User: What shape does this take?
Amino acid sequence: MITGLDHIGLTVADPDACALAYEILLGAPPTNGATRRFQLVNMALEIGPGGGDPVFGLGLAAPDLSETRRVLERRGVSAEGAVLSRSATHGVAIALVADRPAGPPPARSDAPHALDHVVIHTPNPERAVALYGGRLGLDLRLDRANPQWGSRLLFFRCGGAVIEISADLKAPVGDGPDRITGLAWRVADPVAAQARLAAGGFDVSPVRPGRKPGTQVFTVRAGVPGAPALVLGGADG
Assistant: This one.
């Protein structure tokens, strides 16, 4: 079955400009081709051409694609080739890919070396549990409702990263689509990373303590296309 998150896919109208922005954020150039691929320790970011607004998708790794598709079909998730049905995934683009080797170790301390988690907003958290935990078979590590934040958070371990499902506690449960709303990157030195990006013209927040003890975080409010980015370090960072 599924062993991890191989990559985050991002389609945009101007992939060259998008790749340049992520080159600054991630501190390294992509491999060039039809898809610009930024390889990190635990996954990759792939940027390709698209129309309209930026669209994110997930590439999930599996050692045996045929067997994984067979099992998913039995669980009610149909696929066309490697691409899972968008109705079964509630609007999130998800594809299956063969397992690939891990990325190289980090080359610098002031640039992200791994993805910590990807955030998916859902109007129906129980539907998300059924998909990511039941059908895709990911390990549910946390299910916590926090009235202070106004949200319910579900953490699914996916290899070396986490798929975080967020639901609004104040909104009624609905049947609308899920959508990817943010990426959180790990960095060894968040203070140096924040200073580097600020000097590069990115709109970044000040560094602040993270929710997890011993961590520091900052937000990239503008500068990269797609979803807002969180950069975190410290503790396990």
